[in-house]
Hints:
Structural class: mainly alpha
Oligomer: single chain
Amino acid sequence: MHARLGTRIVAIGLAGVAYVLGSHWLMTHAADSPWSVVVVVAPMLVLVAIGAWRAGQHVLALGTGAVVAVLLLQGVLGLRIPAPVLYVAQHVGINLFLAALFGGTLRAGHKPLITILAERVHRVFTPAMVVYTRKVTVAWTVYFLAMVVVSLGLYAFAPFDTWALFANLLTPVAVVAMFACEYLLRYHLHPEFERTSIAAAVRSYLQGTDAPPDAPAAVPKAKADAIP
């Protein structure tokens, strides 16, 4: 099962790289075609919609699906909406949606998104981990909002090719850097946390709420309301 899942993860990674490179080429060489906008924008919005639906944010998911439908309609009708505007709207919109997805779980009475994901990997889940994972959810929310500000700033004050470089190539690098920095910071600030790999986290997310087979013996999880 692990080999099959590993193959799936590699395939997803390769598809992501192909999408990033293809998107950059379309933005810089075929920006006038309404269908190139659909190819670049729609897949990311579909992923956002799926993530929002799985997180229980159905209004956000349906709204994102409606945007995809509008994009398909403009492709069919061949509307001449300036492609750069749509590309920027896509980048800004996705980051706003993700900020809403993460930030929405910080509301009173809700469990932070990173806490939910961490509980799928760690069977030993302490009150310190509850506090930390909430802070990480806040950090990701701020990160996505910062990306919106940078994106709009570059579009307003820099050449479009510079914005395209940031959106298509630097943005994925920034996401990977964010994951890596958080991973290193987690074990620097909290060496008592159970060690786990990124692969285990991905396996747990893809397989659902069950903990991975190599997790340690179960210990009752701390409840968020146990934190003073």
